[in-house]
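Per reviewer request, we include the raw input and output of the structure prediction for the construct analysed in the revised manuscript.
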Amino acid sequence: MAALAESFRQRFDAPGLSVAIARNGHLVYEQAFGVTGHDSSEQLTAADLFRIASVSKPITSVAVFTLVEKGRLQTQDTVFGSQGILGTDYGKHTYGEGIEQITIDHLLTHTSGGWDNGPGDPMFSNPQMNQAELISWTLDNQPLKNPPGRVFAYSNFGYCVLGRVIEKVTGQAYSDYVQQAVLLPCGITDMRIAGNSLEARAPEEVTYYGQYRTGREGHYEDPYAINVTRMDSHGGWISTATDLVRFAVHVDGFAANRNILKGETLRRMSMPSDVNPHYARGWRVNEKGHWWHGGDLPGTSAILVRTSSRFCWAGLTNTRRESSPRALDDLIWDMAHKVSAWRAALS
């Protein structure tokens, strides 16, 4: 496995790489490779923290479903308007067409009808705004492109709104509720929301390195020039690979005695929408029964996988190159296939 890891690090100029693998709910492998940063001689350890980017979305989805199980919300509840959970807390103008029809399920499945992660992604605009200001600005200035429920369009903004739904329903900060209701029951105590600057890194957090983006307007991606803290519920968590695996084995659907959600809830969470057969509610899925989610931001690549053969694994690295997020997924599949005792289960 070390040779595969070192090949990946060299290929993508990655300072550090952290990997954890569990089988049947038990951690069977954890290893850190490299150093915490290009300018550091400090050896990376499995306890070092990385930004996990959109791997935050499964965590937010699980938090939503804890509230569904408690009867505090339903996935068909609307979000905005006089009948919605958030009411008219956000926006200064009358809501545009379709906005008051958006449900929790539309946000979970990326079928709200707008606010996708293309060039106009609201979560990468107006970095000086806080979440409330940004949501209000978006509702007032970016109308939906499609009626809710018709089209899949991956939406970071939709998961930002889900974070505010959690806050409205619980009366707690998003991160506080997630730590209490999701992470602590999984035995996780070190995960937290990332800071934005190099100086705001948490203890034992790595240093991030961007890349020079080629093309007509080439530019350097600065990992410390984006508002990651504001991304909390769609991309703001930091974690170790091992803690991500701890989270996954507590929601994998294989053992009721360790899962923090009921079996029927987990089946609902992992069921693809009618619009996209490859995305469920906070998880990508396929016909083989695998669930996963990747994440990448400037300076970050992350992957979390739950296989139908009862494996859960995670990989984290502190850089991003053109193809590194996909290559990170491939890397851990290759690592798992290297163990002869696992090959039959993974084939």
